[in-house]
Amino acid sequence: MTRVLLAPDKFKGTLTAAEVAGHLADGIRSAAPATEIVTMPVSDGGDGLLAAFAAAGFAPVAVEATGPEGVTGAAAYARRGTEAVIEFAAVAGLSRLAGRPAPLTATSRGVGEVIAAALDAGCTRIVLGIGGSAATDGGLGMAQALGARGGARRAGTAAARDRRPARRPVP
Description:
171 residues; 6 strands; alpha/beta
């Protein structure tokens, strides 16, 4: 019997990695019904990272986090044991922008908040996929959310304006 492993990434803007794998599998089955097919969606670290890890047995954990425009909303990370996987794009990505990209103000603060939530929940290993980011603060908002001090030189950036206290200090 022929065995096939399908490990596609998403087709950005059209299909998720799981949908791509499903369509490929359907096509193979229609041509060769006896083929054993294993699907394993993958991600390049951007959109779809959490779904890929969910397919590998990680469980989603819902949290609240600041989006790239400074608005708090629903977010999530994936967890298995003490390992957490965080998708930057799902927290502060282009898909989280309400309108046009905001190159002077988009913040990464929410990513730091999700990292802090995972650490507070007992995770000791963090995997961070950084593709698909809308943030333009160079990670300053993320670092500040984790307790780093300091600010941006340009007073107009979201990270420089955001002076909320960190959820937990960095050791």
